[in-house]
Write a structure and sequence with these properties.
Helix content is 31%, strand content 26%. The chain has 471 residues and is α/β, with parallel strands linked by helices. The chain has a five-stranded mixed beta barrel with strand order 1-2-3-4-5. The protein has a five-stranded parallel beta sheet with strand order 7-14-8-9-10. A five-stranded antiparallel beta sheet has the order 17-18-21-20-19, sandwiched between helices. The protein is globular and about 65 Å long. The structure holds flavin-adenine dinucleotide (FAD) and adenosine monophosphate (AMP).
Length: 471
């Protein structure tokens, strides 16, 4: 049996990042992960690198370029008469990006002298981890500390059982071999919208069925309203208040039955994507035997510092409560490694930014106007449209706006919400300002380069106080 200071189970963005930080801090570290690629080789990186953030963004970028060629470039005076799509090449590029990054994780493990084991890990009690290796070999490791980072898997619903061909989850929807003429998606959450955008841009007629009456209820309502309008204009047929009740595969098409306020309806599509959310994945971890408890929603129960009830056993990322986001998992992983090394670490869950990589993108940090009202907080607000930003006009990306909310008494920024091109990058400034307890005036008095999209955040901060200039 090999002894370690830290054994990490799972090499997604929570686990592999925790392992690297632990090793950097001088801790003897092993990381076990069972993900295999199509050839059976280890493919660390978890959901994020294999079937999540990275392949979806690769396809979002590729499909965005394709869409721009026909929809944006002519307005720039560029003739694009004979454009065609090579879906195979687009998919191969996406696969290569995934392969480069998963191999990169293996390289980082080697560089940091982390023992990587390709296989399934089970807690065996007394800080021992049994590993059933992908090569059939059984090994035992013992760790003074064990970090559980087993991630999440798609939620399955009886009404639409995934068959991998006609009815798929996110993994299948990132690997269609042809553009489905008609694509149905169940769930207008982050994943449903991103995947719907990809296939809409590549030519599918996309219908999204969403059970809830409201669109993106986690986002700021004003931003969600504008986004819904823009997405519908792009051709996404988003139907709210539609609960899918049954599906039937019939001669290569999928007949979807759903209920809306008027009664039972059907929709016929060539492919159906089930994107109704994800659940913590803890199968086979042996939690019960190790005395590690789950919470009421089947997630590994942890305190604010990612400690389970068992000494020396920690848990991070999607397997625990909180937003299922890669950067949340990684920040927890770093903090846990630092706490194990005896440092004091802090995870600021209130400052985890959210991003939806549609076009335009949606990004926010902090509280929405609705949350602030519900919390009884008095706040000032400032908003500014990209249409009034010179750079946005020059680039032809004028959709959307920025909203900044600040405390009415202290001016401290309480939330920033962006609908617009590059919102995923622009939000970082607001996160930094909030991490330093900045005020709207701090943002307003910070010099922003001209002409840039970041001027919209500057102007929104000005609007929350002394007034915007360009409107
Ligand atoms: P995971 O990435 O799920 O990794 C867990 C790993 O543990 C897996 O490799 C699994 O095989 C392994 N494992 C589990 N049990 C065992 C065991 N017993 N033994 C060995 N190994 C085990 N988030 C963002 O922040 N930005 C995005 O743009 C984004 N896009 C997404 C797009 C899609 C389509 C999807 C599905 C998700 C997306 N996410 C995004 C979410 C993001 O992928 C997750 O939040 C993130 O991967 C969680 O990291 P994790 O380390 O907790 O778990
Ligand atoms: P998210 O959790 O952000 O990925 O979003 C998943 C979405 O799927 C939620 O908005 C759910 O309301 C929606 N959803 C879940 N079950 C169904 C169903 N049977 N029919 C339609 N929408 C659903």
């Amino acid at each position: 049996m090999k002894d370690y200071d830290v054994i990490v189970i799972g090499a997604g963005p929570g686990g592999y990042v925790a392992a690297i930080r632990a090793a950097q801090l001088g801790l003897k570290t092993a990381c076990v992960d069972k993900w295999s690629d199509a050839k059976g080789k280890a493919s660390p990186g978890g959901t994020c690198l294999n079937v999540g953030c990275i392949p979806s963004k690769a396809l979002l970028d590729s499909s965005h370029h394709y869409h721009d060629v026909t929809h944006l470039l002519p307005a720039h005076g560029i003739n694009t008469e004979s454009v065609s799509l090579d879906l195979g090449a687009m998919m191969a590029r996406k696969d290569k990006v995934v392969q480069n990054l998963t191999r990169g994780v293996l390289g980082l493990f080697r560089k940091n002298k982390i023992d990587f084991v390709h296989g399934s890990a089970t807690l065996a009690g007394d800080q021992v981890v049994n590993v059933a290796g992908a090569d059939g070999e059984q090994t035992q490791l013992r760790g003074t500390n064990i970090i559980l980072a087993s991630g999440s898997v798609p939620i399955a619903i009886d009404a639409a059982p995934v068959d991998g061909e006609h009815i798929v989850d996110n993994e299948g929807a990132l690997a269609f071999d042809a553009v489905p003429p008609k694509l149905g998606i169940i769930g207008a959450g982050v994943i449903g919208l991103e995947l719907g955008s990809v296939w809409n841009r590549l030519g599918s007629e996309v219908t999204i069925l969403e059970a809830m009456e409201s669109f993106l209820p986690a986002a700021d309502a004003a931003i969600a309203k504008d986004a819904a309008k823009l997405f519908r204009k792009q051709g996404l047929d988003i139907r709210l208040g539609c609960k899918v009740t049954a599906t039937r595969v019939n001669e290569g098409t999928v007949v979807v039955r759903y209920d809306d306020e008027e009664g039972a309806r059907t929709l016929e599509v060539d492919r159906l994507v089930v994107a109704v959310g994800r659940r913590a994945y803890t199968d086979g971890l042996g939690l019960e035997a190790a005395g590690v408890a789950l919470d009421e929603r089947g997630r590994i129960a942890v305190d604010a510092n990612c400690r389970t009830g068992q000494a020396g056993i920690w848990a991070v990322g999607d397997a625990t409560a909180g937003p299922m986001l890669a950067h949340k998992a990684s920040e927890e992983g770093i903090a846990v490694a630092e706490m194990i090394a005896g440092q004091s670490a802090h995870i600021d869950h209130a400052l985890v930014p959210w991003v939806i990589y549609t076009h335009p993108e949606i990004a926010w940090v902090g509280r929405t106007a609705e949350q602030l009202k519900a919390d009884g907080v008095e706040f000032t607000s400032g908003s500014f449209p990209f249409a009034a930003i010179g750079r946005a006009q020059g680039a032809g990306i004028t959709d959307g706006s920025v909203r900044v909310y600040a405390c009415a008494k202290t001016d401290r920024i309480l939330g920033a919400h962006i609908l617009g091109s590059n919102a995923s990058e622009l939000i970082a400034e607001a996160v930094t300002a909030m991490a330093f307890h900045g005020s709207a005036e701090d943002l307003a008095r910070t010099v922003h380069a001209h002409p840039t999209l970041s001027e919209a955040l500057h102007e929104a901060a000005l609007a929350a106080g002394s007034g915007a200039i360009h409107i």
